[in-house]
Amino acid sequence: MFKIIGELINTTRKKIRAAVTDKDAPFIQDLVKRQIEAGAHWIDVNAGARHGHEEEDMVWLLDVVQEVSGDTPLCVDSNTPEIHAMAYEKVHFKPLINSISLESDRWDGMAPFLKDKDCDI
User: Fold this and answer.
1) R_g of the chain, CA atoms, integer Å
2) Which terminal CB of the chain, N or C, has fewer other CB atoms within 10 Å?
3) How far apart are CA 53 and CA 35, in angstroms?
4) Rounded to the nearest 10 degrees, what angle do helices 25-37 and 54-66 cross at?
5) Residues 23-34: pLDDT tens digits?
6) 25 and 8 in contact (C-beta within 8 Å)?
7) CB-CB contact of 75 with 45 (8 Å)
């Protein structure tokens, strides 16, 4: 069976980056609701595009998204193990961890984080 990941909450998208910069929670929450209504099984959350702000943006997004996501779990999307570790502690349900690859420089950083975690990859 296929699973659908709602990929719209990503700061590489200009409107999302602007909404995060302006802390426009209603805009983000509307996108979350529409993705769930369209059948998304996970909501992807990526805050990596504003360099130097990824952690604060991810914290804000996780809070805002989870206010309206109900029992829909999140897909945490980052290249940074520290962001994944922080987000793992904030999510309400078992997350899907995204941006994992077997490239040694990325895998070597993520493998210690993933050990003993209850998450999908």
Assistant:
1) 14
2) N
3) 25
4) 60
5) 999 999 999 999
6) no
7) yes
Task: Give the pair of three-digit tokens for residue 85.
Answer: 């570790």
Rounded Cα–Cα distance for residues 54 and 107 (Å): 20
CA atoms within 13 A on the CB side of 41: 9
Residues 6+ apart with CB under 8 A from 37: none
Q: Determine the Cα–Cα distance for residues 60 and 55; give it in Å rounded to an integer.
A: 9
Percent residues over pLDDT 90 in the chain: 59
- Look at residues 83, 73, 75 and name the one whose alpha carbon lies nearest to residue 51: 83
The half-sphere exposure of 71 on its side-chain side, counting CA atoms within 13 A, is 0
Which token pair is 119? 């998450």
Tokens 């804000």 found at: 60
